[in-house]
Amino acid sequence: MKARPSILLAAALLSSCSPPIIDVAVHGSGVGSTVTLSQDWGFLFFSRREAPCVWQVSLFTQGEPRDRPVWRIESVGERNCLDLGLFAIGTPPAGFRETVRLSNPAHGTYTIIVHGVGQGDGTITL
C-alpha cells in the first residue's frame, strides 16, 4: 500500500496538538526579580509569541522535593487560567493569589515551575 502525502501531512498535524512549552526568562536575582513568560504558537517557520494562560507558578529550592514550595501563586476568579506575561518574584500579579507566602528565603538556587496551557520551568538565584 502506497502512503499518500495528504494522509502523512494530516497525521503530522494531528500529532502536534499539544501546547508549546512555556518559556521562562528571569531578569535579575533576588526577591523582586522579574520573570517573563511566553509561548510560541507559530507553525513551522512562522513565530507567534504570546503570553501563556497560567493557573499556577511555584518556586522550589533546587534539589528539594516538589511538594514543598517556598512560594506559590494561583489564579483566582471564574477563569481557570489567566494570561501572564510578566511578574515579580514574591508579588502576586493581578488575578492571582499567594497560596504559599515567600518568607525570608535562604540564599541559593531555586526552580520556577509554571503550569497552565502547557508548562515550563526556569532557574533563579535568591
Task: Compile the SSE list and pairings.
Elements: H1 5-15, E1 23-27, E2 34-40, E3 49-50, E4 53-61, E5 71-75, E6 82-83, E7 86-88, E8 96-100, E9 109-116, E10 118-125
Antiparallel strand pairs: 1-2, 2-3, 2-7, 4-5, 4-6, 4-9, 5-8, 9-10
CATH class annotation: Mainly Beta
**What is the helix content?**
under 10%
Domains (count): 1
Q: What do we call the CATH topology?
A: Immunoglobulin-like
- Tally of individual helices: 1
Strand content: 35-45%
Runs with pLDDT <50, length 5+? Answer: none
Order of helices and strands: HEEEEEEEEEE
Return the average pLDDT rounded to an integer: 87
Key features of this structure:
single chain; 126 residues; mainly beta; Immunoglobulin-like; 6-stranded antiparallel beta sheet; 4-stranded antiparallel beta sheet; 1 helix; 10 strands; 9% helix; globular
Can you describe this structure?
The chain has one helix at 5-15; strands spanning 23-27, 34-40, 49-50, 53-61, 71-75, 82-83, 86-88, 96-100, 109-116, 118-125. Strands 4, 5, 6, 8, 9 and 10 form a six-stranded antiparallel beta sheet that branches. Strands 1, 2, 3 and 7 form a four-stranded antiparallel beta sheet that branches. The chain has one domain (19-125): Immunoglobulin-like (Sandwich). The model has no long low-confidence stretch (mean pLDDT 87). It is mostly beta strands and 126 residues long. The protein contains one helix and ten strands; from the N terminus they run αββββββββββ. The radius of gyration is 18 Å and the shape is globular. Helices cover 9% and strands 43% of the residues.
